[in-house]
Automatic annotation (TrEMBL):
This is Right handed beta helix domain-containing protein. It comes from Clostridium carboxidivorans P7. Gene3D superfamilies: Single-stranded right-handed beta-helix, Pectin lyase-like (2.160.20.10). SMART domains: PbH1. SUPFAM superfamilies: Pectin lyase-like.
């Protein structure tokens, strides 16, 4: 992986004794005395001189850096063909192998890695034409896989097995559209793990086939082009180590293809913290949003989940999508104004293009004798993000009146596991966010701004969940919670609460305002008549 060299800190560099023909800009672990090398892809020139000083030239300016040198004795090898590569792979004394430009294959079978901790470094003109089998911990960088034949061992270019931990970086797999030819397969039940960074896979049946009892590590900044299935077979026993490290991948699929597919029994986590995925909608949605709105499809008990993506620009389009939506759908609101009384009754995501420019506003043609609400939620597993709800934003209505009774409210179906993030709610007559009844479970409110609530609470939290990193001001009560919560607890953390009559009001059977169900941490109060108040 690339490292950034910084000034005024100690930078540890590895100095290898044997001279190496350095052909690319992929790694930073090779620096030689007297050699001038490209430090990274930004083409910063560095020189290590005889006095162990290092100088960088960037923008025609030279400056010295504080360097700590570390010498290692691991043997490196430069190879130019498949036979030389296989010999180096079978040599226990060789760790780093540099591939010169050219074609790499064996006449009697695929190249096989059986010894652990090999680092194999190629360049744009390093080509493997008959696949590779990996049976040990390995790192491959800067290699292209391509074949003119549909007959490749195990029907894939890279076959991983036997407890291997594999890292691929800057790898290009080109499939030539041969039927049933795959990019990477992890052998079933092999307890292997793969991480892939800055790589591409194209013209394949499957990009990555994970299979049972294997692990996805970091899958980042990869491109899947003209592939039927991008990441598939996340089945029972398979695991994603950290879902936040499956990020910024792009998918351009074949007709009726699936970017990511998963089924019941898939796990998430690492080591002793591995847990089976029970909330399929949340799991699929996070994968989709983290990967450029990827199409994620569930199977088995999650077969009703698919993250179809819709982009709307007006009320008519929004209402049409809401009527036809299924669990997992993601709706993106283009910048503009949308009428309130939006009712969500499926497990979907409603995401604005930007919080500053997507507005939910009152309807001037609404019956004045009936309450208007910004958004009503009648489902679990809902995400609302990146928008503003403003009860005074419609210029066709009296600007002295707050026309929304509540900004966001729960309906009668007792939703659970909902997320409200990066929302601005203002100019509301009763409640900014209304969470009830006390049987509601796990509502997470994060990074929201709530202000100018006329009669009651900025947030009314009558169920379990979290309120974190919010700004709540100019309300009669900033946050009101009730420790009659039936399931779980409430965490109120890192909020800025100001200019309210009561900052936090807790209804409690105990005199201690922080009862066992209500936890307050690192909240900041300013100019409230009462910072924390409670009633028995």
């Amino acid at each position: 992986m690339e490292r950034q060299i910084k000034d005024n800190v100690v930078n540890e560099l590895l100095i290898l004794d044997e001279k190496v023909n350095y052909e690319n800009n992929i790694i930073l672990q090779v620096l030689l005395k007297g050699e001038t090398l490209n430090l990274d892809k930004n083409s910063i020139k560095v020189t290590v001189d005889k006095n162990k000083g290092l100088y960088c030239e960037e923008n025609e300016e030279c400056y010295s850096l504080n360097i700590k040198f570390k010498y290692i004795n691991k043997k490196i090898k430069i190879v130019s063909n498949g036979e030389e590569l296989q010999k180096a792979l079978d040599d226990k004394t060789v760790q780093n192998i540099f591939l010169q430009s050219g074609e790499y294959k064996l006449t009697n079978g695929p190249i096989t890695i059986s010894l652990k901790d090999k680092v194999i470094i190629g360049n744009e003109e390093t080509i493997f034409t008959n696949g590779i089998i990996i049976k040990a911990d390995t790192c491959l960088k800067g290699i292209k896989f391509i074949s003119e034949s549909s007959i490749i061992n195990n029907n894939c270019y890279i076959y991983v097995c036997k407890f291997s931990n594999v890292i691929l970086e800057n790898v290009d797999i080109q499939g030539n559209n041969f039927k049933d030819l795959n990019g990477i397969i992890l052998e079933k039940n092999s307890m292997s793990k793969i991480s892939i960074i800055n790589s591409s896979m194209s013209n394949l049946s499957v990009g990555i086939q994970v299979n049972e009892d294997n692990v996805l590590g970091e899958i980042k900044n990869n491109k899947f082009n003209n592939v039927k299935f991008g990441i598939s077979n996340l089945k029972k026993g398979a695991a994603i180590e950290d879902i936040d490290k499956i990020i910024n991948n792009t998918f351009s699929m074949k007709e009726n293809g699936e970017d990511i597919s998963f089924s019941s029994g898939v796990n998430i986590g690492k080591g002793d913290n591995v847990k089976i995925v029970t909330n399929g909608v949340s799991f699929a949605r996070k994968l989709s949003l983290n990967n450029n709105y990827a199409f994620v499809k569930g199977e088995g008990m999650f077969s009703d989940i698919e993250t179809k993506f819709f982009q709307v620009s007006n009320d008519e389009e929004l209402n049409e999508v809401l009527k036809s939506s299924n669990n997992g759908y993601i709706i993106r609101l283009i910048n503009g104004k949308y009428y309130g009384n939006i009712c969500i009754d499926k497990e979907i995501a409603l995401v604005g293009e930007s919080k500053e420019n997507v507005f939910i506003v009152p309807n001037e043609n609404y019956n004045k004798n009936v309450f208007q609400y910004g958004i009503s939620i009648n489902s679990s597993n809902v995400l609302i993000k990146n928008l503003t709800i403003d009860g005074k934003k419609n210029s066709k209505l009296d600007n002295e009146v707050c026309h929304f009774r509540d900004g966001i409210r729960y309906g009668e179906d007792i939703p659970s596991n909902n997320e409200l993030k990066e929302i601005c709610i203002k100019n509301i007559s009763r409640r900014g966010i209304s969470i009830w009844p006390e049987t509601v479970v796990n509502t997470n409110i994060e990074n929201c701004n709530i202000e100018n609530i006329e009669s009651q609470q900025g947030i009314y939290m009558n169920g379990s969940g979290e309120i974190k990193n919010c700004i709540i001001k100019n309300s009669r009560i900033g946050i009101e919670v009730n420790n009659k919560i039936k399931n779980g607890a409430v965490l109120i953390e890192n909020n800025f609460i100001c200019k309210n009559e009561r900052g936090i009001l807790i209804y409690s059977k105990e005199k201690d305002p922080e009862s066992k169900n209500i936890n307050l941490k690192n909240n900041f109060f300013e100019n409230n008549l009462f910072q924390i108040d409670y009633k028995l």
